[in-house]
């Protein structure tokens, strides 16, 4: 029997393993919707037709690139992670998207590459950064609330013990 391998892919934090199906679907749908929004915005800013065929023609190379990124990084393991998931999905969407556009005779002007790179970074990495921040804030708020409840309970119990030891009557007025 071979010992388990330990490498960079195996060194992920436990909390990222086994992301729930709901989180995976949400992340995948957000990526798809944002890539389509990118394509839609680009088409509308260049006064191109906003029909489904035209939209598909613009979006599919970037969607294919993002899908390749999902598979390459196994994004389902940590779909909301900025690094490495978000960065790899973004880079793959741009690199493979541009390659596919070039292979199919679509434009790859330098200005478009720059705009696509920056916009897709903002969208595909940005939503993950916002989600991570929201999760951190939510966890911090929960920890603070739990800490406050613990301090109140401990403080009340300590006060009761001190009062009892000092011979002070309890709050119960019954004789």
UniProtKB/TrEMBL annotation:
The chain crosses the membrane at residues 21-41, 53-73, 80-103, 109-131. Keywords: Membrane, Transmembrane, Transmembrane helix. It comes from the Bacteria. Residues 148-175 are annotated as: Disordered. InterPro entries: DUF3054. This is Lipopolysaccharide export LptBFGC system permease protein LptF.
């Amino acid at each position: 029997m071979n010992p388990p391998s330990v490498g960079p892919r195996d060194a992920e934090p436990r909390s990222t393993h086994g992301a729930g199906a709901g989180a995976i679907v949400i992340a995948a749908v957000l990526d798809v919707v944002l890539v389509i929004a990118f394509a839609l915005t680009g088409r509308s800013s260049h006064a191109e037709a906003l029909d489904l065929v035209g939209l598909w023609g613009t979006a599919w190379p970037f969607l294919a690139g993002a899908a390749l990124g999902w598979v390459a990084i196994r994004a389902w393991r940590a779909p909301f992670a900025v690094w490495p998931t978000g960065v790899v999905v973004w880079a793959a969407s741009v690199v493979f998207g541009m390659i596919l556009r070039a292979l199919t005779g679509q434009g790859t002007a330098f200005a478009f590459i720059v705009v696509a790179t920056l916009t897709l970074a903002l969208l595909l990495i940005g939503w993950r950064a916002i989600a991570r921040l929201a999760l951190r804030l939510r966890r911090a708020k929960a920890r603070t609330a739990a800490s406050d409840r613990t301090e109140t309970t401990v403080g009340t119990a300590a006060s009761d013990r001190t009062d009892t030891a000092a011979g002070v009557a309890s709050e119960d007025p019954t004789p």
